[in-house]
Amino acid sequence: MSTSQQNQPSPTVRYEVRDDVAVIRLANPPVNGLGDTVRAGLAVAFGRAAADNHVRAVIIVGDGKGFCGGADLRQFGTPAATADPTLPDVLTTVVRLPKPVIAAIHGFALGGGLELALACNYRITHRDAKLGLPEVNVGLIPGSGGTQRLPRLIGAAAALRMIQQGTPVSGARATELGIADDCFDGDPLGAALDFLRTQVDTSTSGPVVDSLPPADTAGVDFDAARRTVRPSTRNGLAQLTAIDAVETATRLPTSAGLAFERAAFLGLLRGPESAALRHVFFAEKTAPKLSGVPPVSARPISRVAVIGAGTMGSGIAMAFANGGLPVTLIEQNQDALTRGTALVRKTYESSTTKGKLTESQARDRIALIEPNLDLDAAAEADLVVEAVFEDMAVKKEVFGKLDALCKPGAILASNTSRLDLDEIARATSRPSDVIGLHFFSPANIMKLVEVVRGETTADDVVATGLTLAQQIGKIPVLSKVCEGFIGNRMLTPYRREAEFLLEEGATPQQIDAALHNFGFAMGPCAMSDLAGLDIAWAARKRLAPTRPKDVRYSRVADTLCENGRFGQKTGAGYYRYDKGSRTPVPDPVVDEIIRTCAAEDGIERRTITDEEIIDRCVLALVNEGATLLGEGIAQRASDIDVVYVDGYGFPAFRGGPMYYAEALGLDIALQKIRDLEDVHGRTWTPAPLLTQLVDSGRTNF
Fold first, then answer.
1. pTM of the model
2. What was the pLDDT predicted at 295?
3. Which residues touch 22 (CB under 8 Å, ≥6 apart)?
C-alpha cells in the first residue's frame, strides 16, 4: 500500500493503492469543495491511476462528513473558479478512464460532487446520504454534466424535477431512481471494495453514462414547464435555463449537450442574478457571526417556555418543537389555550397531508408541546419567550412576573416587533438576561429571526440567541434597539412612500403590480392587508406625539383603519376580500378614501409611472438602511439584505436593498435620493453614511 505524503497529487487530494485498487480521497474540509487545487489534484490522481498497469479499478471517496459538497462558491468570480483544469475537463478524464471508477458516497454529494459521481462508471451511496443538484438556488444550472448525464440515467422528468427544485434526495431514494447502483450502511471505502469484488467486471471500464442514448421524455412537457416559471422570481432565469438544458439532453448527443450546458452555465455565472443570489447565500452564512465580540459560549438550552398561545406564540412553539426542543405553551385562559393547541395540531396534520412529515414525525412534534394554564410552569425553563399582545404595559407586567419565578440564568426573551427592549428589560432585576427574539409570521415557517441586543444584554445571552436560532433551522440577524429594529424600521418609510404615491395618483393595484414585477413576493398594500393594518396603526398612534408637524404625513392608512378596514382579517383593507377568499379585489371605496385624503392635503393627483413607484419605494429602503447602518443598529449591510430577502420578500435575485444600491452604484443611488429630496423635502434627507461613502469614492457599504 502506497501512502507517501511527499507523493500526493495535491494538499487536498490523497492517493493510495490498496493491492490493485487506486483509492482517491477528497480532503478539502469542510465539504471537500471542488476548488482549483482539488481539481488539479484529481486530474493528477486519475492520470496516475490510468498510467499504473497494476491498478485495475479506482474508488473515489470523501474525507470527513461527506463525499463532496460541489464547487467552492468562495472562488466564484475569481480566476481560480475557471482555472485549468476545469471540472468538465476533470470529468472528461474520468469518463475516458479505461478502468472502472466507483464513487462511494456518504453524507452528501451535491452540485459538482454529484456531477463527479455521475461521470464515474458506478455509484454507491449510504442510504442516508443526500444527493442533489442545488445550483438553481444560487441562480445557476449544473455546469459539469448534471443536466446531460442525470436525464440519461433516470429520464428527463425525474431529472428536471431534481434540478428545478434544487432539493436533494436520500441515498435510498437515489438508488430507487437509478442514480446509484447500490446503497450501503457503514464505511464507504469498505462498501466500495465489497461492491468492486462482487459486482464489477474489471476487465472493462464498465457502463458510461455518456454512451447512453438521449434521455427519455416520458412524463415531461417542456413548454408546460416553462409556463410555470415566472422570470422575476428568486431563480426564474436559472430554472428556465435548466429546462432548456434538460431538453437538450433529450435531443442531442452527449458531447453537444455538454457544450450547450457549459455555455449556459457560464452565461448565468457572469450574470447579475446569480451574483446577487450568491451574495445572499454568503450573507445568510455570515449573519449569525457576532462581530467585535470575543468568542463566548452559548448557554445550554434544553427546555423552552412560550408565553401566549395566539398565532405567533403557537408558531414559535412549533418552531422549537421542529428543532427537537420540548416546549411549554402557556396561556391565561382555557379557550385561548385550546385554540392554540388546535392550531398546532391542524398545522402538523396539514404537513402530513402534504407529505412534508410522516404521521410519526408529526406526533413526536406535537408531543413536545405541553399546554399549560399556569405561568409557574415556566419556572424551570432555560429560555422563556414572551409572545403576548404588542403593548408595553402588558409586556412589562409579564416580564416582572417571569423575573420573580424563573430560575437564575434563564434567558427572558421578547418577541416584540418594535417596542423598546431596554424598557422591557428594566422591568426585571436581571436586564443582562433579557433579549429580543423577533420571529416572523408564520413563525414555524419563516426562516428569519431578529435577535435584538439591549444595552445591557450579556454577550453569552446574545450568543445563545444566535446559536439557538440556527439550531432550530432559522437565520438569525443581530439588531440593536431602535423603533422597529431593522425590518420594521425600514418598513416605515417604504409604506410611507406607497401611501404618498396613492395620494399623488397611483392605485393600490398599480403599486403592488409594479413592485411584484420588480420581484417582491407581494406589494406593500397586499402585504399590509395580510399582516393587518391595525398593527402599524397602533404604532403610529403611539408615536404620534413625537412626529414632526412640518413633515408630510399621509392619513390614507389611518382612515382605512378608522373605517374598520384592517385587511384580510376583516374582509377589507386596501382591497376587499370575498368571504373565505384571500384574493384581493380592487374596491371603489378605497379609491374614494384616497382621493379625499389627497384633496384634504391639497395634493393634485397625476399619472404615476411604475419606474417612479419602484424608485421611491426601494430607495426609501436603501436610505433608511444606510441610516441605521451608520447608527450601528445593524452589524453589516449584508445583514440588512438578509432581513429584507428572508423576512419581507425583497427579490433575492436583486440581492437585498443594500446590494441593490451597490449594483446600481452608490453615487447614482445618492443622486436619485437627492433629486427626491428636492421634490419631496425632509423625508428624503440622504443618510449621512451614504453621503460619506460616495464623497470618499467608496462603491460599497
1. 0.93
2. 87
3. 15, 16, 45, 48, 49, 52, 55, 57, 58, 59
